[in-house]
Design brief:
Ribosomal Protein L25, Chain P; 6-stranded parallel β-sheet; 6 helices; 11 strands; alpha/beta; 2 domains; 250 residues
Length: 250
Amino acid sequence: MSDGFFVASLPDGVSVGDRAQLTGAEAHHAGVVRRLDVGESVTLTDGLGRGVVGHVCDVSKSVVGVEVDSVLLPGPPRLWVTVAQALPKQDRAELAVDLMTEAGVDEILPWAGARSQVRWSGERGEKAGAKWVSAAREASKQARRLRFPLVDSYAGLGDVVACAETYDCVIVMHEKSTRPISQCPVPSSGRVLIVIGPEGGLTDDEVSALEGVGGVTYLMGETVLRTSTAGAVAVTQVRLLADLAGRGDR
C-alpha cells in the first residue's frame, strides 16, 4: 500500500505522466522521515476529494518529485456523516478526532455541553481547534482518504440544535435510551448528524432540545464508552446501517 501525502493543490487537468511535487513539511516527511526512494509508490491528495497515485522520480530534503501513474476522482459522498463531538479531556481529544477520521466521518463539530469539563476560549481555544484540524489531516493521510473531514468552529448547545435542523437524520447517543442503534432508520444517502455528549452525559434539557428538532436517542451497546471513542464507534455503526439500507437488507 502506498504512503499518503498532502499537496496544497492539484492541477485541474492532471493526467497520467504529469509531474507533481511535495514541498515543505510533506517533502521532509517523505524524504527524511519515511526515507522514500526513487520508484516507490505514493498517493497524493488535496484533501478536497481529488488525488493521484504515482511513483517517486526524485528525492531531496526539500522537494520530492512524483510522476503520476493514475488519477483518483471519486464522486461526492452519498451519505454525509457529521459528529457533534463533546470536547474530551485534552489528552484524549486528538485520539477522538483520529478515530472518527479513520472510521469515515465527514465533518466534526466540537461542542461543550452542560457537563463538559473542557471549554475552549481565547488563544488556547484557537490552538486546540488547530490541533483538531491537524489530527484530522494526519489521520486522513494514514487512512488514504482523499477528502479530509471538515472541523467546524467551537459550538454550544444552541449551535448543535440549529445544525440538527438541517439534517435528514439526527441520532443522539444516550446511555439512558432503550432503543438500540440497530433500530435507527439510517438512510443510504443524505445527511446524518450524530450527537456525542461529554463524559458526564447529556442533561435532560439537552436531550429535550435535540428531540425538539427531530433528534432521537439511541443506545450504542451494552457498555458505556468514553466520549473520545464513542464518536468513532457511532460512525462505524451508522455507516454499516446505511450500507445495509442501500442493499435493502433491513
